[in-house]
Amino acid sequence: MSLSLKKQKMPEQDPKVRAKNFAEVALGYSAGDAALEAARCLQCKNPLCRQGCPVEVNIPEFIKHIKDGDMDAAIGSIKNFNSLPAVCGRVCPQEEQCEKHCILAKKGEPVGIGRLERYAADYARNKGETVKPVAYKADAQKVAIVGAGPAGLTAAGDLAKMGYQVTVFEALHLPGGVLMYGIPEFRLPKEIVQAEIDNLRKLGVEIAVNAVIGQTFTVDELMEEEGFNAVFIGTGAGLPHFMGLPGENLNGVYAANEFLTRCNLMKAYRFPECATPIKVGRKVAVVGGGNVAMDAARTALRLGAEKVYIVYRRSEEEMPARKEELHHAKEEGIEFRLLTNPVAVLGNDEGWVKGLRCVRMELGEADASGRRRPVEVPDSEFELDVDVVVIAIGQGPNPLVQSTTKGLETNRKGNIIADAETGATSKPGVFAGGDIVTGAATVILAMGAGKKAAVAIDRYLKDKKNR
Amino acid sequence: MYKILEKQELAPSVKLFVMEAPLIARKAKPGQFVILRIDENGERIPLTIADFNREKGTITLIFQEVGASTRQLGRLNAGESLLDLVGPLGKPTHIEKMGTVVCIGGGIGIAPVYPIARGMKEAGNKVISIIGARSQDILIYEDEMKAVSDELHITTDDGSKGHKGLVTHVLQQMIDAGTKIDLVMAIGPVIMMRSVAEVTRPYGIHTVVSLNPIMVDGTGMCGGCRVAVGDENKFACVDGPEFDAHLVDFNGLMARQRMYKPNEHDASQRCARHGGEGECQCHSH
Ligand SMILES: Cc1cc2nc3c(=O)[nH]c(=O)nc-3n(C[C@H](O)[C@H](O)[C@H](O)COP(=O)(O)OP(=O)(O)OC[C@H]3O[C@@H](n4cnc5c(N)ncnc54)[C@H](O)[C@@H]3O)c2cc1C
Ligand SMILES: Cc1cc2nc3c(=O)[nH]c(=O)nc-3n(C[C@H](O)[C@H](O)[C@H](O)COP(=O)(O)OP(=O)(O)OC[C@H]3O[C@@H](n4cnc5c(N)ncnc54)[C@H](O)[C@@H]3O)c2cc1C
Ligand code: SF4
Ligand code: SF4
Ligand code: FES
Ligand SMILES: [Mg+2]
Question: Residues in domain FAD/NAD(P)-binding (chain A) (predicted)?
């Protein structure tokens, strides 16, 4: 039997239908799809795919188990490396990681590693996973985790399994970090994130929501007064950047964080049954070209906008968003205004957005990052008729923890300085990882950092005890 | 769950809750606030910490019923609980001995000014307070303010109590009479705070106001609470809520506070459909 050069297709909701609902776009493989896709894997002796995965999931092994129909073994194998496979199978930029390196990608399409990972994780969840609580020893040491995003949750799970007494402190009323408040339901159903969090609780991890570290407690208080022997900081990149445009404070201008938080965390799409309001634009411009911009644009469409533009100053090639999501956005009817840069938000007499003034750009010389730098085309100003503008040009580190913790060093951008292998910071007993260290990155990198830090914290606490 | 230990009605549609909140009470300082959520479908509602008792582990919240969520809040009773309560948030008031401090509270703003006046008094300042309301029956915290002030002036719009007129009239008279003022601290409706800023500006009297833009997270994550202060945009939830009144763009703030007027109307209408004021069912199913 000759194997297909193409991946098994992912069943999806029809673009016209899904553009009006918040249900998941990609529906997941059937058992038949999964078997066919698993059969495409060559079971390489030296699997290049693994090198592309930041946590080195044993890809051929778990795929072989799927092929053999041994799903318990498949999920067991994945979970040895990755504690959130249902999430990563959905949101990892596979085309730049595992699948990019797959040997099949040289001739045709790579193995659908992410899709298979998702299939195994969903299978396990639907079957009902059994999580055994870890019995603490009476003298178990205590570890505090600050921030319940993928970095913090991964560190928490691993440390709990090692027998530590772990408490996660989360500022918001729900744990999950960007997985809960940022990435929309139609890409990552909240039920999946919730199931992972429930599993952590069953494992014995305590999650204290409504606890802002730097306010409710400081890191120093956690260590000196609350008896924590070590602290892991995974507070993410949650500080929205604005552009400093004239008119940026008009009504109808949102940072993507606010727009997405109102919709995902606060369920504003169910207003007024859910009490948080959101401005549903008639015509919406989203400024930016990353995953955050795509998510905001597709959310605006689902809220009921007639027209949604992505305004991006470079060309499609330079867009940092996942290709798959770019494709989805196009299918749904999002209009791309590339090589276009906003210069002012225009308002009406009552202080509401009535347009976005833009200039056209062209690509000039390559900059330090190797991408060609966009430069303004003279006299190319034009106006987009919009009533909502969402700024999605990136996020920086929130300073709350750094500014209230003695002896915690940060870099020029305000990120915590931590060892790439261990997460150790300048402050003894304090470790950090995820977006707060690297700047806005990916779920799997944040998880990888949480994992490494858990190992390092274990080593640190054992060394300290034996001294 | 966060328990309501005590409930009082201070004036029609102004209610006071004493909340069980030991962790917040332990850290709270004058000028800070909390964010609460009533139930699973609730929005995040910011309210100033009007008082706190570290020994008892309680904080006091005072709120005016102005829309769907605050009305729903007002229907809760002692013994019931809120789903979420987080804090203390924001920066505390800068309190030190400065000399003479004029504390101005307008309407519901008297509640948050109270712990500040008390703190200023304890720090050794002479505290002159001016509190104002539309009418005597909605004037709150008169006794509390009297207890922490060297002088207390009352104004009402309708003249039912104290001076007939606005708090700014009394402030202007004080300045005209040559009173030496080292700091004015004003909390109340934005229009009042803007007027206070205009009164003190020509004399260069340092004036601080506490801003209440629409907030979501209260941790600096969403950017919704941004306010232009001088040449900069500040996030009121983490950089404030207190700012130098002479630098604040009050008109911009007022415009942004109206962002959800059409939605708020819908929410209130929906409440009315569910049985009118006092019996809204929309969040309890
Ligand atoms: C809209 C959007 C879409 C994205 N799409 C993708 C994608 O498709 N694929 C992908 O791989 N990555 C994506 N990312 C990036 C990815 O989500 C992040 O890199 C990842 O979530 C970082 O994890 P983290 O644990 O470091 O931080 P976060 O997920 O940001 O979590 C940090 C947590 O810490 C909490 N916190 C912050 N300060 C405090 C404090 N002082 N006290 C207590 N708690 C605090 C926050 O409330 C939050 O819950 C996306 C990001 C966004 C915003
Ligand atoms: C730091 C801060 C401290 C505050 N302290 C107090 C206080 O001690 N007592 C008190 O009575 N009120 C206080 N407020 C205002 C209070 O939060 C609002 O009145 C309340 O959220 C209105 O909710 P609603 O649904 O009942 O009214 P709605 O009908 O939804 O809104 C009425 C008006 O309230 C304002 N508002 C609505 N939602 C919010 C929000 N999420 N954040 C801020 N303002 C909003 C808007 O300007 C709106 O026009 C404070 C606000 C802030 C930001
Ligand atoms: S975790 Fe992400 S990168 Fe690693 S194998 Fe799974 S999908 Fe690929
Ligand atoms: S490189 Fe591709 S074909 Fe080879 S083991 Fe990995 S997934 Fe299978
Ligand atoms: S309320 Fe979100 S940043 Fe201030
Ligand atoms: Mg409301």
Answer: 142-450
